[in-house]
């Protein structure tokens, strides 16, 4: 029987600590480097929500994020909104669909495959109000209570949709079922 004690293997730390450190390093690399939150931290406790993945990009497609950040709507109008309630009001009055691009703003004629508009991000266009507001919510670093307020909101299905999208882009994949399960039989209708 082999004895794997640190004194006999020549290692200064026990093997279980070394394995844990290696696993943690691998998680950080998978999440986009040192700036990413570790998905092992569960978001099931307290009012503070962990952010999973890249803390700067919200895990958005790079083309969508670039268009959001360069959008006059995001840079000027949404810059002035400072509170959660102001952003929720803006969603109520401005969002009419939750697709990434404004309708008719993308040139897809003659393109095929992934560039033909099938996947939604092959070529740019004018980024939608919904995605600008989704990223604005991300900049506010919402609490669990605020996210619950979004997904249970009764005034607009688009407020709820952006709440679910916020969860999808920011929460650990292992927690998604806990968030979505009780809403799977929801029959509220809205236009994509």
UniProtKB/TrEMBL annotation:
InterPro entries according to UniProt: PRP38
Protein name, entry field: Pre-mRNA-splicing factor 38B
Residue intervals passing through the bilayer: none
Biased composition (Low complexity): 13-30
Main subcellular location of this protein, as a coarse class: nucleus
Record's keyword annotation contains Nucleus: yes
Organism: Suricata suricatta
GO cellular component, as recorded: spliceosomal complex
Reported function: May be required for pre-mRNA splicing.
Family designation: Belongs to the PRP38 family.
Keyword set, alphabetical order: mRNA processing, mRNA splicing, Nucleus, Spliceosome
GO biological process, one term: mRNA splicing, via spliceosome
Superkingdom field: Eukaryota
Localization annotation: Nucleus
Residue ranges with Polar residues bias: 1-12
Region of interest called Disordered, as start-end residue ranges on this chain: 1-39
């Amino acid at each position: 029987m082999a004895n794997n004690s640190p004194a006999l293997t020549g290692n200064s730390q026990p093997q279980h600590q070394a394995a844990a450190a290696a696993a943690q390093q691998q998680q950080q690399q998978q999440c986009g480097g040192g700036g990413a939150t570790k998905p092992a931290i569960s978001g099931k406790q307290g009012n503070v929500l962990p952010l999973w993945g890249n803390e700067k990009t919200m895990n958005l497609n790079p083309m969508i994020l670039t268009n959001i950040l360069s959008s006059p709507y995001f840079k000027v109008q949404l810059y002035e909104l400072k509170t959660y309630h102001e952003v929720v009001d803006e969603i109520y009055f401005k969002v009419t669909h939750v697709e990434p691009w404004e309708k008719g703003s993308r040139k897809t004629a003659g393109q095929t495959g992934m560039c033909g508009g099938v996947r939604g991000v092959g070529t740019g266009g004018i980024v939608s109000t919904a995605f600008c507001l989704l990223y604005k919510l991300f900049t506010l670093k919402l609490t669990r209570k605020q996210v619950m307020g979004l997904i249970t909101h009764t005034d607009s299905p688009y407020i709820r949709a952006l709440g679910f999208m916020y969860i999808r882009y920011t929460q650990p994949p292992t927690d998604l079922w806990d968030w979505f399960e009780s809403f799977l039989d929801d029959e509220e209708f809205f236009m994509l």
